[in-house]
Amino acid sequence: MTLSLRSLLAALLLPAAAPAQAPAGFRLVENLDYVGAANPRQMLNLILPDTVAPKPRPLVVYIHGGGWEGGNKENPGMLFALLGGGAYAGASLNYRLSAEAIWPAQIHDVKAAIRWLRAHANEYGIDPERIAVFGISAGGHLVSMLGVSQGIPDLEGTLGAHTGQSSRVSCVIDFCGPSNFLTFGGKGSIIDPDNPADVPARLIGGPVKDRPEAARSVSPVTHVSKDDAPFLIIHGDRDTIVPYAQATEFDAALGAAGVSSTLITGTGGPHVFGTATLLRRMRDFLDRHLADKIVEIPEAAIPVPE
Q1: pTM score above 0.85
Q2: 67: in domain
Q3: Is residue 18 part of a domain?
């Protein structure tokens, strides 16, 4: 792992003590209200290249993790490294946490954010037809939901002034997100979805065993269909929070539906990890789906140093 990647992972794993600083060559546009309710949890930051491009840039949207009960847009983790030195614009968004509102508030928020970004694309030099989403843990869950739930009324919501815009995304990078709340937890995981004090129950308003319909609604695997966005799924096989089986189950469901899905396994990888090889594959995935580059994304496992 290189020093620069260590710095990225430190930024990912530690709470931000102060607003993020844009990397060299970029500028921040902060606290854009994508709903219009003046709620800080419904605002986003843009990370825009300083230079003017000859055509609108594709956009990479980061959705933070934190068990749906913590985290914020000021800590975009690996996003800066994925923007390709100005090839892409970036966004990092907040959404309502489970202490404020239970599911489906979170997917309603992030879909409203995508619609807002599409509606304001021309203003910020963004290509509205090329929007990727990337998230880690709870953020991985939410980007997965964005990738599979296009057009489902109960999940689209009616937030914001741009309900006529599509919430569709071009591709998804799901890093260790849960995919099936009915099989979440159990052997190898510290999460107990039937414990009312644990994070899954707090998200859906009660233990999974008591709220099976909510558990199905919140599970990306429930909504897989043939027209879903292409996926890159990244998961460590020693994840003790979200079991590795969540990734293999979701990847298999996408493949069975005819959806392009690539699963990269971090051999010996915990819940969050990073290597230079992984970062290259993530960039290649974005280049393939946002920049039409002909590039293969190897599914070979990546050893994760201790």
Answers
A1: yes
A2: yes
A3: no
